[in-house]
């Protein structure tokens, strides 16, 4: 009762503040819906399955750029490709900030700027990205790409051995095994370290990473109504626990060994060595920067595991897609070996399935925040305004795609059979804050998907589905039925 009374008082006070704020709004602001006291226009988002569907619907009324208040946070939504390019590329320097959500601070030791993805842009973050670029964006002809291929090929053998322990022709939970394979690919490539799938501590950390990936892909009222924090006390403590235990695992099971064996007179063995060496050479870098950067990139394995699961859900729904992938695999490997990354160029359909999955998932780009007073399309955008990039519309809008509601991997194939991506398709964002690890996502998801479908037919029940506007699936998600292919694939191992 006390909480209800307090809320009513807050509503009365904020009603006056809202009217005053609306009156004093800067001239030239984009049009938009009139906000309610305290809550702004949060109620409009609740009328749709995802916030980005709501943004698309509102754009039909207010235009391709509009203002919206979420709680007390002033926001702008941009809905077409030209406006998105203006924000991300032409004026990328003006929109280098990230949302100051309390959850983000909890996940990164009390300061979201410890994270590469969730930090505000700065010279320090530019330096951290430059260290990572060689390892996280390997070129096809580089030694790093050879290493990615070797790590992927070795880990899928362990992955298959674990999968083959599961019962066949019955629903099984494969997501934990997929995630452990992805995690080992990252730790082996970046840290020259891998872990047994039976390692209880490793299992726990992989689960925590997956929980966090799901968490970041969700929205909560407390993000825009921070006065609700007392009601989220338990939730925030859980975030702190997950992130703290992940950090302790990385320190004790990975970094300590690297520090003890680091040779400054030799080239770095891996990304971990490169970070530790840079720590000694750059006075602007400190220990926190190193461990959080490594944590950020190791955590990227969750994105791959979830992308694989969403792709498998699509294959269950559209069995002909899985059949086409298997025909391509058989044609390239001759059923004499497993697929690898150097087969990728000869398997354009398989790659196009992953792109179509990303298009349909329409996972939202992390919002940007104006770091200076600026403009978009001539409209005034004050410093601190949160900017939502509605790539949902870019991914599923009829203006951009033929038959956007259908799952058609062929849309990414040229008449010559090569993979082509439209310029407006930016699942990993674009500009200086584009996802630096996207090439690893593409490589490891390809090898896991191709390996699994070479060995098994995949099916499932009615519960096999993914949420629109989200590449994440819940940590405890649908089960799949794996049926060994007949005749069995002959392995050269």
TrEMBL record:
SUPFAM superfamilies: Cytochrome P450. Residues 1-23 form the signal peptide. GO terms for cellular component: endoplasmic reticulum membrane. Heme binds at residue 435. Its cofactor is heme. It is a peripheral membrane protein. The keyword Iron applies. CDD domains: CYP1_2-like. It comes from the Eukaryota. The keyword Metal-binding applies. GO terms for molecular function: heme binding; iron ion binding; monooxygenase activity; oxidoreductase activity, acting on paired donors, with incorporation or reduction of molecular oxygen. Pfam families: p450 (PF00067). Keywords: Endoplasmic reticulum, Heme, Iron, Membrane, Metal-binding, Microsome, Monooxygenase, Oxidoreductase, Signal. InterPro entries: Cyt_P450, Cyt_P450_CS, Cyt_P450_E_grp-I, Cyt_P450_sf. It is found in: Endoplasmic reticulum membrane; Microsome membrane. Belongs to the cytochrome P450 family. May be involved in the metabolism of insect hormones and in the breakdown of synthetic insecticides. This is Cytochrome P450. It comes from Phaedon cochleariae (Mustard beetle).
């Amino acid at each position: 009762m006390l909480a209800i009374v307090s809320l009513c008082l807050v509503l009365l006070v904020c009603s006056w503040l809202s009217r005053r704020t609306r009156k004093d709004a800067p001239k030239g602001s984009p049009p938009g819906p009139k906000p309610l006291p305290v809550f702004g226009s949060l109620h409009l988002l609740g009328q749709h399955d995802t916030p980005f569907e709501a943004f698309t619907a509102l754009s039909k009324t207010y235009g391709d750029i509009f203002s919206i208040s979420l709680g007390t946070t002033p926001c702008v939504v941009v809905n077409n490709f030209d406006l998105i390019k203006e924000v991300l590329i032409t004026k990328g320097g003006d929109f280098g900030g990230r949302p100051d959500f309390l959850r983000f601070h909890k996940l990164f030791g009390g300061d979201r700027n410890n994270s590469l993805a969730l930090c505000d842009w700065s010279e320090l973050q530019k330096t951290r990205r430059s260290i990572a670029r060689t390892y996280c964006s390997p070129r096809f002809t580089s030694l790093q790409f050879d290493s990615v291929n070797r790590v992927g090929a070795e880990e899928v053998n362990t992955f298959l051995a674990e999968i083959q322990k599961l019962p066949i022709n019955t629903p099984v939970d494969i997501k934990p095994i997929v995630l452990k394979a992805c995690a080992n690919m990252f730790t082996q490539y970046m840290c020259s370290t891998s872990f047994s799938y039976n390692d209880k501590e490793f299992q726990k950390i992989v689960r925590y990473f997956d929980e966090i990936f799901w968490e970041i892909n969700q929205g909560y009222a407390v993000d825009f109504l921070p006065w609700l924090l007392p009601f989220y006390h338990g939730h925030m403590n859980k975030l702190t626990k997950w992130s703290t235990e992940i950090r302790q695992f990385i320190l004790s099971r990975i970094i300590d060994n690297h520090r003890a064996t680091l040779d400054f007179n030799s080239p770095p063995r891996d990304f971990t060595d490169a970070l530790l060496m840079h720590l000694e050479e750059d006075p602007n870098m400190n220990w926190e920067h190193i461990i959080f950067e490594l944590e950020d990139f190791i955590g990227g394995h969750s994105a791959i595991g979830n992308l694989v699961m969403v792709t498998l859900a699509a294959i269950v729904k559209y069995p002909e897609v899985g059949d086409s992938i298997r025909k391509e695999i058989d044609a390239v490997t001759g059923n004499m070996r497993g697929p690898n990354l150097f087969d990728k160029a000869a398997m354009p359909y398989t790659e196009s399935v992953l792109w179509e999955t990303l298009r349909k998932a329409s996972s939202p780009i992390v919002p940007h925040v104006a770091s200076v007073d600026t403009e978009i399309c001539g409209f005034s955008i004050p410093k601190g305004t949160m900017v939502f990039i509605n790539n949902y519309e870019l991914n599923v809008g009829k203006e951009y795609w033929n038959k956007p509601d259908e799952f058609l991997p062929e849309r990414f194939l040229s008449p010559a059979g090569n993979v082509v991506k439209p310029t407006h398709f930016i699942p990993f964002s674009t500009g200086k804050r584009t996802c630096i690890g996207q090439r690893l996502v593409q490589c490891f998801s390809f090898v896991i998907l191709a390996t699994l479908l070479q060995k098994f037919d995949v099916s499932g029940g009615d519960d096999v589905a993914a949420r629109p506007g989200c590449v994440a699936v819940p940590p405890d998600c649908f089960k799949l039925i794996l049926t060994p292919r007949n005749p069995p694939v002959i392995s050269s191992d």
